[in-house]
Specification:
alpha/beta, Aspartate Aminotransferase, domain 2, Aspartate Aminotransferase, domain 1, seven-stranded mixed sheet, 14 helices, 12 strands, 37% helix
Length: 376
């Protein structure tokens, strides 16, 4: 029984049998030859839309890290979400948080109109909101994101899974921010876990990819596999290789970012220029008790600052930062700041004075000094 950090660092203890190379190769071929009996030579790969040897290794590592039965690599996070949602039958009921990654919210709303999906977006700050929204016999999927972007609300995975399963529904957890370093959602009762691999899993802001990991290879999973194949929603071999390379430093990067985020949040918690610091590692965060039980080795590298003075003052603070780069996305080695209200449409529920911080692997003292001077 190896520690997950060891599995990730060694990419599943890869050693090339023919050369002894310890770095996995890229297999760019899209098609694979057959022998004289017209049987596939390795009996696994015929065409890259069905799967590529470079996918296979990263999928195996991800399944192992999440304690899952199998993983699938997709061309992007949204491609993975699309494949999952497309398997729902017409008229199915879906429950999801009203406040989460906005791209998922938009796609769920669009899908509910196109595919006749019944959608309930709930306010997870209200007790029992998920349980009240679940309809026994009708709800097919409960989608949760924890910590939830960009306020980092915490949802109890085990409690949600208990409610969903009692009603005949499945649970999928967006664990992009937590990563398997902090949370293994399948071990808390989830049926499937999703990652935007573009973020922490890769960690270098240089690829797009998505990953789904399942607890069981049942009928629903087989339908998702078919959806990926039929739509051709696969990553390139080079991107799969980059992702595998990123996974080898996942634990070191996430531990560093999480430790720095905790220091920064604690330092700024009572700053006079801030209304509030949103970070599940702070004891006054509404989800701290659940996060402490559900997460391990820290609370993640994401936090948000609510600046006194509204949108204009928040943007001014962002513009005064020197080390933080003003950019979308998260989970890279570099620290980023983003005024979410600027990039989300008016109907979004994100607070106008919120700055989202993605903490990288820089020295935390330098990041704190930068924030102090920007806040004034």
């Amino acid at each position: 029984m190896l520690h997950p950090a060891t599995i990730a660092a060694q990419a599943g203890h890869y050693i090339d049998k023919s050369t002894g190379a310890i770095t996995p190769p890229i297999q760019p071929s899209t098609t694979f030859a057959r022998d004289n009996n017209y049987a596939l030579i390795d009996r696994k790969h015929s065409y890259s839309r069905d799967g590529n040897p470079t996918y296979a290794q990263v999928e195996q590592v991800m399944a192992t890290l999440e304690d899952g039965a199998q993983a699938l690599l997709f061309a992007s996070g949204m491609a993975a979400i699309t494949a999952l949602l497309q398997t729902l039958e017409r008229g199915a009921h879906v429950v999801a948080p009203a406040r989460m990654y906005y791209g998922t919210t938009v796609w769920l709303n669009q899908l509910s109109q196109r595919q006749d999906i019944q959608l309930s977006l709930v306010d997870i700050s209200q007790p029992d909101s998920i349980g009240q929204a679940i309809v026994p016999g009708e709800t097919r999927l409960v989608w949760i994101e924890t910590p939830a972007n960009p306020t980092w609300d915490i949802i109890d995975i085990a409690a949600t899974a208990k409610l969903a399963h009692a009603a005949g529904a499945k649970v999928c957890v967006d664990s992009t921010v937590a990563t398997p370093v902090h949370t293994k959602a399948l071990n808390h009762g989830a049926d499937m876990v999703f990652h935007s691999a573009t973020k922490y899993l890769n960690g270098h802001s240089d690829l797009l990819a998505g990953v789904l990991v399942t607890k069981e290879c049942a009928q629903w999973w087989q339908q998702i596999c078919a959806a990926r194949h039929d739509a051709g929603a696969v990553a390139s071999a080079f991107e799969a290789w980059l992702l595998l390379r990123g996974l080898r430093t996942l634990f070191i990067r996430v531990h560093r970012a999480s430790q720095s985020a905790q220091r920064i949040a604690t330092h700024l918690e009572h700053h006079a220029k801030l209304e509030r610091v949103l970070y599940p590692g702070l004891t006054d965060h509404p989800g701290h008790a659940i996060a402490k039980r559900q997460m391990q080795n820290g609370f993640g590298g994401m936090l948000s600052l609510c600046v006194h003075g509204g949108s204009e003052q928040a943007v001014a603070v962002a513009n005064r930062l020197k080390l933080f780069v003003s950019a979308t996305s998260l989970g890279g080695v570099e620290s980023l700041v983003e005024h979410r209200a600027t990039v989300e449409p008016p109907e979004s529920k994100v607070p106008e004075n919120l700055l989202r911080l993605s903490i990288g692997i820089e020295e935390s003292e330098d990041l704190i000094a930068d924030l102090d001077q920007a806040l004034g």
